[in-house]
Amino acid sequence: MDLTVILPAGHRVNMSVARRHRRKNIRLKVNLPRNQLAVYRVPPRTLISEVLAMVCSDRAIEPDTHEIRHPVNIDEKLRGSCTLADYQLQEVSLVPRDYQAPPLSVTDLITMAAITSTSRETGDGKRRGLMSLFTRRAKSCALMSQCLKCPHVLMRPQCPLMSPESVPVS
Fold first, then answer.
1. What angle do CA 134, 139, 144 make, to 5 degrees?
2. In a domain, 4, yes or no
3. Can you name one GO molecular function term for this protein (predicted)?
């Protein structure tokens, strides 16, 4: 038995429009409190305030007590009047309004460990652990000068080595 399906010409046009429309949406990952994750398909021109309303209504979260922040630099609050395309983001974080990021991130610790390992290779001689970074010694000035050259630490102004008093004026 042969089966032939004839589609009207308009049907193919609608399918191509649907495919083009589907390509315009982006996959938005939302990092929620308690290490949860939500994923949505939204247009890139979606306002941050709309994302907040959508996530809060979907997850039964109070929108007055939470806000959308940058996923990498959690201290950066995203303005509700801007769009995802303005920030060029495909991932955001939903955090409580009073949330403050810890003073040192994992990236900061890895950066400081890499700096100390390079100083060890240059002839320091002693092997020291990661926790020795937090003790105050005469070498802290050298460590701070190396941290100032590191782009990861410069992006995180809350680093204790980067307090306004410790930044040299050039």
1. 70
2. no
3. actin monomer binding
3-class SS at 169?
coil
153 close to 108: Cβ distance less than 8 angstroms: yes
pTM for this entry: 0.51
Read off the CATH number of the domain in which 63 is found: 3.10.20.90
Question: Within 10 A of 144 (CB to CB), how many other CB atoms are there?
Answer: 19
Please tell me the distance from the alpha carbon of residue 59 to that of residue 135, in angstroms, as a whole number: 43
Residue 74 lies in a domain: yes
Instruction: Tell me the pLDDT tens digit for each residue of 136-162.
Output: 554 545 555 555 555 554 444 444 444
d(CA 108, CA 153): 6
- Tokens 């315009």 correspond to 24
